[in-house]
Amino acid sequence: MGLQRPALEAKISNLLSIPVVAGAAGALVVFALLPQIAELIREQLSANLSPTMAKLAATAIGVGAVVFLITQLPIFLIWWERKIAAHIQDRLGPMRVGWHGVLQSFADGMKLLFKEDIIADGADRFLFKLAPFLVVMGVFSAFAVLPWADGLVISDLNIGVLYVIAITSFGAIGILMAGWASNNKYALYGGMRSAAQMVSYEIPTAIIILSVVVQVGSLNLQDIIAAQQGGFGDFQNWFIFRAWGLNVIGFVSFFICGLAETNRNPFDIPEAESELVAGYHTEYSGMRFALFFLAEYGAMFFVAGVAVVLFLGGWSGPVFSGPLVFFLKILAIVFVQMWIRWTLPRLRVDQMMALCWKYLIPIAFVVLMGAAVLQVSGG
Amino acid sequence: MEDLAPKIIFWVFAALMLGSALIVVAGKNLVRSAFALLATFFSVAAFYVMLGADFLAGAQVLVYVGGILTLILFGVMLTNRIYSLELNTPRFQVVPGALVSAAIFMILVTVVRVTPWKQASIVEEGPTTARIGQALMNQYVLPFEVASVLLLIALLGAAMLVRRRTDL
């Protein structure tokens, strides 16, 4: 007793943060032990089920784990982004809900859950409801080929890279659908801009991915990682350090294209607040809006993951290897994405298109040609 | 169970493909027709997967969903008076259309029934990507290059058409 109400609230929220922080630490431990856990589950399954059923069950467990990861990750990423934004702007950011605001995302999530699900009067109801699912599907299904460790991948596709480029185009269709079905001029403009942006930046992205594929000779993501293993400190053979700096250019271009494909600043023209209210998700509220948010953070994480696989050795890390190293490398890239968002101003539409067609595409072709020449000459 | 699953998947995708294709041709809402194409293209890719053509399936989704469908949607959405546009294809020429399609259907059924189909032995197909690449670069390099030049001409033509008059 004797505590004043604000102090009591602070105490309760601090106590509530303990399980959350412990949970995050536990998640890192699980990540570190992921190969062992997967091996254990695989043994149990093959002991109790027929081979086909065991494979099916293993895939189902893998899908469940990845979906759990990418639906829970935004809780952390949103809090992290708000903290980064605040510190870049010389503020503290969320501090009230939990220790240093770690419970803020939970509070916001609850708020979104309880919000009224509004569908505008003139909207095309069917397409309006379908659009967020398409966007989320495009991002989630791409995770199927992301390898977490040696032999730890949901689907070891031999056309992995092609699948990644192909399946992410569902997102563009979903965004166009959201923009059109909202029956709102801002939403429509936002959707069109976004789709135009994604389609344009897909070209340099694909060409730079191709430059790495040329150096490996395989479209399989595990093969790409295997080609980067070994060398000094387990990082000498990463593609970013190879081909005499050519791949550094490739990596930077790929990173810029990744920002554009996920509609992040400085390429967030589709949702430019000062021009378009909120772009394609202007009319969305509650959980449907949350789905777009989920897809955005999932896409950020995924693009960073592909960048790590292509240029930074994937799970084959500096000194250590495994899912935890992979995860931390992805978070490092995501950090740079957030850092850029809060320091660079937004581009104009014409500047954005000029950057893609006049600079990135020629650069991408130069990188591809260089990689091909080096490969043919045996470099 | 293990024999049944591929059949179920086949029929689900067949129904999805035909149903969405029906919406594309018979729908009254142009934008909805364009969006229905998504399911059609995707089901075709699913059939490629079931036939073991992995590269072709990826390329199908990449080219048709990522490229062509997006362009169609842009075209449709930029059309004037899209909201008041009444599509009247179903009401025109119902009888001749039905006759022609019934005739084509009969011809196809006859061809399927009369042709002496050869039963291929089921072989486990490996990855196809490398073989496609080698075929394109060796045996079919001329058609490949001709197609490339054709696409390049189309690109140049499009760029020429949208140039400002003052540049000419």
Q: Residue-averaged pLDDT of chain B, rounded?
A: 82
Give the structural class of chain A: mainly alpha
Into how many domains do the coordinates of chain A divide? 2
The greatest interface here is: A-B, 25 and 23 residues
Instruction: Provide the low-confidence segments of chain A as ranges.
Output: none
| Strands of chain B, count | 0
> How much strand content do the residues of chain A show?
under 5%
Instruction: Quote the distance from N terminus to C terminus of chain A.
Output: 74 Å
Q: And the CATH topology of chain B?
A: Four Helix Bundle (Hemerythrin (Met), subunit A)
Oligomer: heterodimer
Distance between the termini of chain B: 67 Å
Instruction: Please work out how many helical segments of chain B DSSP would assign.
Output: 6
Evaluate the radius of gyration of chain A. 22 Å
The percentage helix of chain B is over 70%
* Overall average residue pLDDT of chain A: 84
Biggest sheet details of chain B: none
| Shape verdict of chain B | extended
Low-confidence stretches of chain B: none
The SS-based structural class of chain B is: mainly alpha
The CATH H-level homologous superfamily of chain B = NADH-ubiquinone/plastoquinone oxidoreductase chain 6, subunit NuoJ
CATH hierarchy: architecture of chain B: Up-down Bundle
Task: Describe the 3D structure.
The complex is a heterodimer of chains A (379) and B (168). Chain A is built from 14 helices and no strands. Chain A has 379 residues and is mainly α. Chain A folds into two domains: 1-114, no CATH class; 122-379, no CATH class. Chain A is globular. Chain A starts with a helix and ends with a helix. With 168 residues, chain B is mainly alpha-helical. Chain B has a single domain (4-91, 125-167), classed as NADH-ubiquinone/plastoquinone oxidoreductase chain 6, subunit NuoJ (Four Helix Bundle (Hemerythrin (Met), subunit A)), CATH 1.20.120.1200. The chains are: A mainly alpha (379), B mainly alpha (168). The A-B interface holds A 52, 124, 127, 157-159, 162-163, 165-167, 169-170, 172-173, 176-177, 180, 188, 192, 195-196, 199, 202, 219 and B 2, 29, 31-32, 35, 38, 54-55, 57-59, 61-62, 65-67, 69-70, 73-74, 77, 127, 129.
